[in-house]
Amino acid sequence: MIKIAIAGYGNLGKGVEKAIAQNPDMELVCVFTRRDPESLKPASGVPAVALAEMEAWKDKVDVVVLCGGSATDLPKQTPQIAAMFNVIDSFDTHANIPVHFAAVDQAAKEAGKVAMISVGWDPGMFSLNRLYAESILRDGSTYTFWGKGVSQGHSDAIRRIAGVKRGIQYTVPVPEAIESVRRGENPELTTRQKHTRECFVVAEEGADKAAIENSIKTMKNYFDEYDTTVHFISEEEFEANHRTLPHGGFVMRSGVTGEGTKQLIEYSLTLGSNPEFTSCVLVAYARAIARLAAEGETGARTVFDIAPKYLSPLSDEDLRAHLL
Amino acid sequence: MIKIAIAGYGNLGKGVEKAIAQNPDMELVCVFTRRDPESLKPASGVPAVALAEMEAWKDKVDVVVLCGGSATDLPKQTPQIAAMFNVIDSFDTHANIPVHFAAVDQAAKEAGKVAMISVGWDPGMFSLNRLYAESILRDGSTYTFWGKGVSQGHSDAIRRIAGVKRGIQYTVPVPEAIESVRRGENPELTTRQKHTRECFVVAEEGADKAAIENSIKTMKNYFDEYDTTVHFISEEEFEANHRTLPHGGFVMRSGVTGEGTKQLIEYSLTLGSNPEFTSCVLVAYARAIARLAAEGETGARTVFDIAPKYLSPLSDEDLRAHLL
Question: Per the CB < 8 Å rule, is A304 touching B308?
Answer without folding.
Answer: yes
